[in-house]
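Hi R.,

As promised on Friday, here is the backbone we talked about, encoded as structure tokens. Could you run it through your design pipeline when you get a chance and send me back a sequence?
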């Protein structure tokens, strides 16, 4: 990657900053699945995690480096504080990648130096230079971030960046860590860096914007206008606090407004050359996968990938769309791989038609996964009058999601409820050891009764913090997707499942969340033993 990149490099941090969303905890298999999809999407850099944070994070970075970081694949990156142990661990985890990158960072704002680091400016200057050089010993590609750069005194920021570049940094990333800036301020910040850091032309200039004021995407685009050529972003904009700049928003803004952005890259206004390497038809599929595995639902009015993004209810808008699509749509749904909500299959459809339609929707399943999904399709088709593409997607994602090895399996759910009876649930599960257990419980409602019974069987302390239901399609026979979050100590774990019976979906979603918690507790126990 040359210092003067002629396109925008997409640096995806869904698996690092995105996973810092409360409840978005992912296991290694889930991170791998997302990483493979990010590679299909065409991202340039995958920040696979924070290798030193935990044994699980280390293994995730290591597995992604080995399996996704192939010669023609994306750069695989690990975050590391400007600390020798962090950098050593990151380098070890990245050994299997064809193109590894260490991303090291240290705070530079006065408020961080005083209250968090408790270090002087001169100490931070020395550490930044020393640790970038140390990272350079392990890999050729080193990214440096001055944390809270947007609130750092400019002259000091310039000094830190100049030292980091001199020590061997190849990418300089400017984080608006607390989402404080406006687009104009971001533009001024980038201009100041380009004018006052003597060796800035030796590196790729990058931006990382947070969404605390809802300005992450606008700020990232303003940075691009002012010479930034790498954008750090996440799928669906998930991340710490209010989240990050959303990858899909950045990419589609560059595509839809290409004539506006072309001159900033020295191109003719009407140039049709893409401004980034993203395969936009993979956006919707990637968005759904991240939503399912993290349990982070997409708000209906979310730009680009929300359920209402291409919906028109106003009569005036509908009339305009009928007459000419561009009256009220600036992009086509097909541009992001969004399928039309068409009825194509029913209970009499065969396996080949099912397989063919899934391929059209972008799903390439193994024979085993296809069999599971087809059997579930037949079950649901018997209950529903009509099967839409949305139903098919929910079924496939439900049946092929990565179940945790040695977890609890739900065998049977039976509920009795009504206005003149006490809600009662009978639950049968199979334990990780293979034992079959059954118990019954009463509750304030059918779902509460189910959860009470499951808790009696599983016996893992937890607190239900969120329960939500979302209809996949319209109609009384629609599939419903249930998302739950449970808390244990200070951590949040999520689960998701779909069914025409909301109580059944709620039971499976709860078991999925409990299995994430169970896996976490197992990992913690193993770590304690090894220590």
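Update: got your reply. Pasting your designed sequence below so it's all in one thread:
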């Amino acid at each position: 990657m040359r210092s003067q990149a002629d396109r925008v490099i997409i640096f995806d941090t869904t698996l690092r900053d995105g996973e810092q969303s409360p409840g978005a905890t992912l296991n290694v298999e889930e991170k791998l699945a997302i990483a493979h999809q990010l590679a299909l999407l065409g991202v340039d850099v995958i920040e696979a995690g924070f290798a030193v944070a935990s044994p699980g994070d280390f293994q995730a970075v290591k597995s992604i480096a080995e399996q996704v970081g192939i010669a023609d694949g994306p750069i695989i990156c690990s975050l590391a504080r400007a600390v020798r142990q962090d950098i050593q661990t990151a380098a070890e985890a990245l050994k299997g990648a064809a193109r590894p990158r260490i991303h090291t960072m240290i705070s530079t704002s006065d408020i961080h130096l005083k209250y968090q680091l408790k270090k002087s400016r001169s100490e931070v200057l020395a550490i930044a230079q020393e640790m970038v050089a140390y990272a350079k010993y392990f890999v050729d590609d080193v990214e440096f971030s001055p944390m809270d750069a947007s609130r750092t005194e400019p002259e000091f920021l310039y000094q830190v960046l100049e030292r980091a570049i001199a020590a061997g940094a190849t990418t300089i990333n400017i984080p608006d860590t607390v989402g404080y800036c406006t687009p104009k301020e971001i533009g001024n910040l980038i201009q100041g860096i380009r004018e006052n850091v003597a060796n800035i032309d030796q590196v790729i200039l990058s931006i990382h914007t947070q969404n605390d004021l809802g300005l992450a995407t606008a700020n990232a685009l303003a940075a691009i206008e002012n010479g930034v050529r790498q954008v750090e972003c996440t799928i669906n904009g998930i991340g710490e606090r209010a989240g990050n700049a959303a990858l899909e928003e950045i990419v589609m803004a560059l595509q839809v407004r290409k004539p506006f952005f072309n001159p900033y890259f020295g191109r003719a206004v009407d140039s049709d050359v893409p401004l980034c390497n993203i395969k936009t038809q993979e956006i919707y599929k990637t968005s759904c996968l991240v939503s399912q595995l993290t349990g982070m639902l997409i708000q209906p009015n979310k730009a680009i990938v929300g359920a209402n993004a291409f919906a028109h209810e106003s009569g005036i808008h509908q009339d305009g769309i009928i007459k000419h699509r561009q009256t009220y749509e600036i992009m086509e749904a097909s541009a992001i791989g969004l399928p039309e909500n068409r009825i194509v299959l029913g209970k009499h459809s065969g396996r080949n038609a099912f397989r063919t339609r899934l391929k059209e929707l972008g799903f390439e399943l193994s024979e085993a996964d296809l069999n599971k999904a087809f059997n579930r399709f037949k079950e649901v088709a018997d209950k529903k009058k009509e099967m839409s593409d949305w139903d098919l997607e929910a079924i496939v994602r439900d049946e092929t999601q990565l179940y945790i090895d040695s977890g609890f399996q739900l065998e049977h759910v039976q509920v009795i409820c009504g206005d003149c009876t006490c809600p009662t649930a009978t639950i049968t599960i199979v334990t990780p050891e293979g034992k079959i257990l059954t118990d019954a419980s009463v509750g304030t409602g059918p779902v509460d009764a189910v959860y009470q019974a499951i808790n009696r069987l599983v016996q893992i302390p937890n607190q239900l913090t969120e329960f939500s239901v979302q209809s996949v399609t319209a109609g009384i026979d629609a599939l419903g997707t249930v998302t739950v979050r449970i808390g244990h100590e200070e951590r949040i774990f999520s689960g998701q499942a779909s069914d025409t019976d909301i109580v059944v979906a709620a039971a499976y979603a709860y078991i999925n969340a409990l299995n994430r918690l169970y896996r976490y507790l197992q990992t913690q126990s193993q770590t304690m033993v090894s220590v």
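One thing I noticed while checking it: The longest strand covers residues 463-471.

Thanks again,
M.
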